Amino acid sequence: MNDSPPQAAGRSFRWLSLAWGAAILFWLSMEDNNAIPVAILATGASGLATTAQTLRWLQTYPLQRHYRLPGAVLFGAISGAGAAIATALLMLLKTGLHSHVAPDYTFAQMIGMIERIPLWALAGAFAAFGVALVLDRRAQATAES
Question: What is the reported pTM?
Answer without folding.
Answer: 0.84
